[in-house]
## 1
Amino acid sequence: MDRVQSILLGLLLAAIVAWAARRRRSLTMDGSLAAAVVGTLVFGLGGLAPGLGLMGFFLTGTGLSRYRQAEKERRSQDVVAKGGERDALQVLSNGGAAALCCVLWAVTGAAAWALAAMASLAAAAADTWATEIGMLARRPPRHLLTFAEVPPGTSGAVSSAGLCGMVAGALFIGLIAALLPVSSAWGGAAGAARASVIGIVTLGGVAGALADSLLGATVQERRECQACGAKTEQITHRCGGATRRVAGVARLDNDMVNLLSTSLGGLIGALLWRVALG
């Protein structure tokens, strides 16, 4: 199959998935358009492993977000800025880096970009699994820097359940990455190459998700409701009161932090692959 055919097939698959997600109200209209673009690049240029990785991330993330959804929304409604349908910014912040890596892989043929694409998706999955699983932990999460208990959904907060979910999400994508056709670049046994790919992608994913928590605890914009005093990420709090920035970098919101962390996860994956090749 030549490049044009691959892209057209990727466009078809991505459009079907985006349409189905829109029908199930998993994506907004602009979110479905962004998903179609990301999916076309990942499926069309990345091939089987990145395509399955993107699909796996989306399906598991959607499934986890809907599991006991009402309970999670009740626990985090004072804090999180977005919920339910994912918009274009959320789609691009989670899948944009992987799509770019797939483009670079197609252009350069360098296996490191294939590892970067998968590690970026692993970081997105690790962060999503950590958030959705940690939201249901019996005890409130703790802030990464102060260790004080904070409301579920607070950026920069961690829990033991969330950390387990983080590792599981990264490993899930790591196992899919074993399908990457990069064993020839390794120069050794195919089994050793697959094991190395799984480990590298998993480590990159965990590193990216931990970076997400660290950025959320330090530089992400944090706001406070001027009406009720609640700490939140919302521009207008659910009580109806306006909010003001009290810490962090202006306009550095959760979407931007996700983009930075998935990009970092991909970069770490590429660097680890280079080191492994010697």
Note: Strands lie at 142-143, 157-158, 222-225, 231-232, 243-247.
## 2
Amino acid sequence: MSFLSRIRGWGFWPMARKEFIQMKRDRITLGMMVGLPAIQLALFGYAIRTEVRHLPTVVLDESRSAVSRSLVDAMRNTGNFDIVGTVRNREEIRARIEDGEVRAAVVIPPDFANDLKRGRTAQAQVIVDAADPLASTAAINAASLAVRATSTVRAPIEVRVRPWYNPSLKSSTYIVPGLVGLLLSITLIVITSMAIVRERERGTLEQLVVTPIDKTSLMLGKIVPFAVVGYVQMTVILTLGKLLFHIPLNGSLPLLYTLSAAFIVANLGLGLFVSTIAQTQAQAMQLSFMFMLPNILLSGYMFPREAMPVAAQWIGNLLPLTYYLKILRGILLRGAGFERMWPEALVLLGFAVGVIALSVRRFSKTIG
């Protein structure tokens, strides 16, 4: 018997026809299968840039001379440094970098101009937040361009790049802390949405609704266990990151765990919101994946946000992971305290409260 005869004998074509008809009837799922990849391709193809430019930079110019200003102008003209202000000392440089306001600093010593006049090599320094190796590489290349633009034959200029927080420029030091936020975001949204939709498909959700429990308590009771799972995942990733990749833990772990609560709740709220839209587990999975790619590509987890177009940066500002990554890398790599991280923590708290309130309200309407 030929292969085609076997297919006909097994009823292949009637079964395939039945599946196509079913797919046609489920227009929401079909639309997501076709439309979402097209939208995401257009968005991410436009937004993702690996070349890092326009690093926010401050200047400590202790020379205050024409030639020092020429060096600063040359660095600005490379396009890799956006000069956003000046500082008075190195302590202010550290504070501005830890606050996340700037990513680099140009330091020109007092004897810079005198060394040039005397024919000696004049030295300057570029301090860069090397938690992101791509940004560090861009800063090193830009510093070399600026040196070539300002050096003279008689008295060359040497600019030394000093990487902070990741002196060896290891990509794992940048990526692994971000994995905490990325994996929490993915798993919490998926498991929450899938679990609730599965309850609805089986008919057990309606049985829970008729019990003497208000709907808000019902939903909070369902998501709290997932929050505990999130903390367990976080602990496992941090432990393995330290043992396998030697990720530094420079800050306070109790502070990190405390600030993580808002992020975990925000993602559980997103999962709950997805469950109010999706009618089937397949739809819940697809909608959950719709949140995953922006989290990976637009939050700063993999690609520096400074390299993205402004529109993509605005979209990234709508993602809780964008702010949580700043908390993770700030505490783990820079040793930042609450006084540095409170703005991001406040935004995450607002996300958590808003998303949970919206999701509980929608959920009450969908099962009411």
Note: The mean pLDDT is 78.
## 3
Amino acid sequence: MSPGPSPLVQAARLFATQLRISGMAAMQYRVGFWSEGLLSVLWSLIGVVPLVIAVEHRGDVVGWGPWQLMVLTGFFMMISGVFGALVQPALVESMHHIRRGTLDHVLLRPADSLVLCLTTEFNPWRFVEVLFGAGLVAVSLWQLAATPRLIDLAAVALSGLAGVLALYALGVLCLCLSFSAQQLQNLTMLIESTLDFSRWPIDVFSGLLKAVFTFVVPLAILTTYPAQAVLGRLTFGTLLAALGTAAALLLIARLSWRVALRGYTSASS
């Protein structure tokens, strides 16, 4: 008897299948697909206004010039798009299952329960925001006459991966909290509101707040580090710290998920 696919391969297949299904469903209403995507881009661009005002009055912000801040904003748009497209919809759907006591429909399937919860629902139209963010980064680099080196692009990929993994870890921790706080239906709004702080460079914060936004709720990993990487300003030590922080958060999230499942009571119990 041949062994089945590895957990990583199985997770990738589940992700690809659900993404294809969500994409086909979204494209049935193409006007809505593009209008929702463009609306999210508009809201993100409106968020640039505080940065522009700050630069006009102070010249630069903690060593970040106007177009460097636009690079940061581009990465913020990308991570916000990833959250809205992949993370938030799955969390909301899973929280509905927890609140109704119907999570059994997920837990009884022959696959990892956490992977199933994180792939249960996607909103592909938010990928439009990711594309616009990437375009803003490209335009900003052109305005800066900056050409990233190969090593810088590798650092962008690794720091971006760390950011996405950290974002998923925060989502899982929020999902675990919903087991004991089922009356709180908008826990994902907490993450979304916190993400707004990542519009700014991490050096804007100081003391305890900077430590929290670097290691506990790692906003620095989400936007500041990838922006520094593409600008050639991210050190190797900082990159390693980002990867280590993301890995630690993933481990904590996985253990928290196992503990949370033990206290789950289904509707049939």
Note: The mean pLDDT is 82.
## 4
Amino acid sequence: MKITEIKTTPINIPLELGYVWSVGVNQGFSKTIIEVFTDDGFVGLGEAQSYEHAKLIDEVIAPRLIGVDPFDLAAAERLCLPEWQSARNIDDDSLTRAFGGVEIALWDIKAKALGVPLAHLLGGAVRTEVQFSEYFAYRENGENSIQDVVDYCLRKREEHGSTVFEGKVGFQDALTDIRLVTALREALGEEATIRLDANYGWSLLTARRLVKELEPLNISNIEDPVLGYENMAQLRQHTTIPFSTHEVNLPHAVAVGGPDSFVANIAVLGGIGGTLRFVHAVDVMGKDFWFYSGDSGIMTAAYIHLTAALPSIRNPHQSLLRWQTMDVIEGGGFRPHNDVIALPQGPGLGVRIDPDRLAECHQHFLEHGPCESISARDNGQYHRLPRY
């Protein structure tokens, strides 16, 4: 089998309402959908983290992979990426991230050719359902007060059986954050899981005060409470609440005693092979791992298959799936119910592109530009909600 063509399509995944976070308002995500074609008629699906990776794949990666056996993942990686020692000297991981999206498609081809689900190639499924969180935040023209956010979470529990909630803090004053989390705990009860995502929005001084107030509220995790592993290590002295981070420097984390968990994306880690290596290393070092959200159904399916096959992924993944208004796969995308999504059936990733939906997401990108360009600022000012 040989690779004959690699097609990239930049897309937008808009959100129904923009959500407020520590640097502004996010209104959606822009990705690159990847289709890898073979001479045997198989088509593998992948997804790169950014629309900017389309050009890199077209100009650098695709020419190197045409004619290569898609089963030979080691050869594909060797042709596309510098050796590990060289990569450490390059302050640009965009090639690794772009290749990571293509590499997902190669795994999809391999599993489809063998007629098995991807999880089967990864050792077999140890679970058939994978946990995802519900998400909460202040949103433009939506939840604009503490009570609004509380009511939203209660509706999701009633409508979808949600018991795991993660949401944005760190963009208003500390007292408002405490009031929000206190109200959520009181309304949702002790049985609900509450995780917070501060996106570096707190200074170390503010975070020290906040964790003392949050400790009695049984918070399961705070993501990126302060900037950098060193600050997290200092904050660790003041609380037992676990911390997670999007920064994926495991040796540094272990050396300074910073985060307890890593939250990443398959393409960011260089593909499924790189993710397997990273997750195993994280587990050996006594840390945890889960995936973040803001992806199409292709990447979400890859998350589910990996999680189904890896016992060491024990925690619910982040999920903005409920807010995403467009997707590229048949059926319109995944949505959790009772905190879980079932493992897709069928060979490979178990999902198929809907050509009309892909065209719609691409047209949104062409007409509106990438979501990143419209999400952060308005007339030079950060979006802020009024204080309460």
Note: The two ends are 62 Å apart (CA to CA).
